[in-house]
Amino acid sequence: MKMTAKYKANELANRFVTKSVFDMTNEELKEQRILAKRNAIICVNEIIDAIDWHEFETPNKEINYWLDVRKELYKL
To answer: For every residue of 6-69, which 3-state class applies, written as one string?
Structure first.
């Protein structure tokens, strides 16, 4: 079963947080959120580009899933 786009967006962004939230000031936390979101969007864009490159082999539902993940990342 594939995870929801919202869950996947959060999972990807969390992979880019570099230290514990308990060790960060409010300013560092804000900066980490921005960087994590930006990096996750870059990754999703790469995935979308790769799927588009082989569009004739890939069902559109795959592209739609990653487009939804990207929308959720923008909402973070």
So the answer is: HHHHHHHHHCCCCCCHHHCCHHHHHHHHHHHHHHHHHHHHHHHHHHHHCHHHCCHHHHHHHHHH
